[in-house]
Amino acid sequence: MIGEINQGNIYLLLPSKVSRMAEMLADQENISLIEAIKQIYLSDTYRRLENEASKLWHLGPVDLCHDLRNESVPGK
What is d(CA 43, CA 71) in angstroms, rounded to the nearest whole number? Predict the structure, then answer.
């Protein structure tokens, strides 16, 4: 059990979040799983996710993918 989430242990949550997001993104965008993972790790969403203070880690993969897709929409 992790206990309290803080900046020192947030990394323990990230692999499962990224994995689920990548599966969804690959399916939605019709891209490879590797390409989806690259997009996630290069995104502002991921930078905020790995910052415990953002509390983005509370969100599930559907909301995280929605956030990721919105950041790449021109004019948003």
Answer: 8
